[in-house]
Structures are given as structure tokens and as C-alpha cells.
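Entry:
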Amino acid sequence: MRRFVTNRERYRRTKSGCSDSGAKWGIPLFLRAAREKGWAEGTFLALLSVLVLASAVVAQQSPLEPIVRSMDRAAGNFHSTEASFVWDVYTKIGDSADTDTQKGKAYFRRKGNGIEMAADITEPASEQGQILFRDGKVQLYNPRTDQVTVYNAGNNQSTVESFLVLGFGGSGQDMLKSFEVSYVGNEKVAGVETAELQLVPKSQKLKNNLDHILLWIDPQRGISLQQQFFVSESNYRLARYSDIKLNEKISDEAFKLKTTPKTKVVSPQG
């Protein structure tokens, strides 16, 4: 498992695009050299401003920026996405660990000013079911009990949508508003050279439920091929996506629960 980069380490690696040693020694050495050479104050200040400007330019050319722009372009053109998924839920309690794997199809589409999402879990047979997010409600259908459990997102609708569209229609700018984002590096996922990003929630409410997220973004298409949601360092959900189809027509049937006339609907929230 990739080690979680701490805020302190990220600060050390990114502060002014240099290491701690550069921050402590780079400019003092330059000052001393300037004094020894007897440069005029005006000349020295002009050179210093050039150095500051150059430092800013280097900072602006962070590998994160083109990824954010790519996600912004993808969000601007987003209408729908269809993909096959493999979800691995890893849970560790004490010395005991368990991995639960689900496979199926996921669908996303823009509807008016909002986003609709549906997932059809096909494997394993014992966990077949559907998930539907629409009109501010999350609906879980269990065909074995023939029951739909409904959760109303309420005031959290925008938060729910922001998670649903991470890497699938969500813009890079919106991502930056909700998370502290850092560039981890490049990594191949399913043969594609991706950019790995680490996201730490800004909201304390989110931090209470989610430690951090790793996204593997295809920089050419601005979409996510892999996502890892950490509840803690040892408990996470890894989502892998393949056969991704962008902006193709998706049948309305994909966004309907396959219920029966006897299906029971319950809402834990009342």
C-alpha cells in the first residue's frame, strides 16, 4: 500500500519548489555573494526580483495544473459515462482482515443541473443489487429481500454529488474547493500512464468520515481509472474502472431500479 504523505512532508516538498536546505541556504548565500561583489543596491534588487519571478513560474508549472485543466475540459464536455467496475472493500479489525469484492456496471449522466448515478452489482451472486442516486436520494435495492432502502441526501446533496463525480464529470476546480490536492506521481493503470493525486478533505465534517482519497487520472481524457477511499489507514475501498465509454447514449432503463410490484420501500431517516 502506498504510504500516506503527511501535510508536513508535502509542505517540505512543495514550498517554493525547493527542499528545506534550499529555503534555508539559497538566498543567504546569494546575499553574501552580492555583498562580496559590491553590487549596487538597485542592481541587486532587480536580480532578486528576477529570481522571485522565476521561482513563481516554476511553482505555476506544477504537474498538478495540467491535470486540473484536463479535468476541467472533461467536465465542460461531460454528458454521460458508462464503465465496468471492480470494487474491493478492505476491512481490518485487530489482526483480522477481510476483502469483499464486487463487480458490475456503473452509469453517470448529467440531468439538468445535477448528476445521476446508477450501479448494477452483478457479482458475486450473493451480493447482486442496484444503487441509484437521483433527485437528492440514494436508493439501494436488494433483490433477495425485494426491498429498497432510501437515504435522503438533504443538505448534503452537493457533497454526495462531489464524491460521485470525482474523475467522472467533476471539474478540477471543484475538486480543489473541497480538497487539499497534491500530485503524488505517475503510475501505469491498466496500461495507461496516469497521474496519481492525493485528496485530503478540507471540511471537518468530511474528515470525520474520510481520511483521504487517491485518484489515478488519465491526463488525456481527464477521467479517473482508479480510486481509493481511505476511512482510515487500514480500511479502504478501491475502485477500478475499465471499458469506459464517454458521452455515449445511455438507456433510461439503466437509471431505473428493477423492482417488483411487491417491493418494500423503507427509509431509516423516517
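The first strand starts at residue 80 and ends at 93.
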